[in-house]
Amino acid sequence: MSGPEPKVEAWRALLEAHAAVLDHLSAELEMETSLPVTFYDVLLHLNEAPGRQLPMHELAARVLISKSGLTRLVDRMTAEGLVERRRGDDDRRVVYAGLTESGRTRLVGAAPVHLRGIDEHFGRHLNEVEADTLRTLLRRVADANGAKGNGVRSPRT
User: Fold this and answer.
1) Angle at CA of residue 53, ends 41 and 149, nearest 5°
2) Three-state secondary structure of the chain
């Protein structure tokens, strides 16, 4: 009996690498900025959205947590003054999550820590060609499965 096929092994390696790197990123971000990585993810998506707000259903599709988890997360972030809920101008039934100035300030302050962690725990293990190849391959898989483009970027000022 032989071991798992290469595609299954690649899948396992991806999951292991993701979990290990995310553990480091989460710990560093929380320790150095008191901002959980889940907060950072929400703040980054809101910062990049038109008007720095997104309908809750659209934000839920972009972040890496469940819809019910997002509601609880936005509740906590609202209590900290990082985001606010807003009703739609055109359709009052639509609830938006909007970035506050305090949330933007926290995002901009946390970005260097997060980007440094990505470089230290991920980027330094790849050369430019490998990074480009990995990006191309993972983007192909993500696109084929309807991903919403949940990359990690630095907030634009």
Assistant:
1) 45
2) CCCCCHHHHHHHHHHHHHHHHHHHHHHHHHHHHCCCHHHHHHHHHHHHCHHHEEEHHHHHHHCCCCHHHHHHHHHHHHHCCCEEEEECCCCCCCEEEEECHHHHHHHHHHHHHHHHHHHHHCHHHCCHHHHHHHHHHHHHHHHHCCCCCCCCCCCCC
Which one, of 137, 115, 148, 149, lies nearest residue 14 by Cα?
Answer: 137
Model-level pTM? Answer: 0.84
Distance between CA atoms of residues 102 and 61, nearest Å: 24
* Rounded Cα gap, residues 104 and 43, in angstroms: 7
Query: Taking the C-alpha atoms of 12, 15, 17 and 21 in order, what is their torsion angle to the nearest 10 degrees?
Result: -170
How confident is the model at residue 48, as a pLDDT? 95
Strands of the sheet with 95-99, listed across from one edge: 53-55, 95-99, 83-87
Of 14, 37, 38, which Cα lies nearest the Cα of 25? Answer: 37
Tell whether the model's pLDDT for residue 131 goes beyond 90.
yes
The full 3-state SS of 10-30, as one line of letters, equals HHHHHHHHHHHHHHHHHHHHH
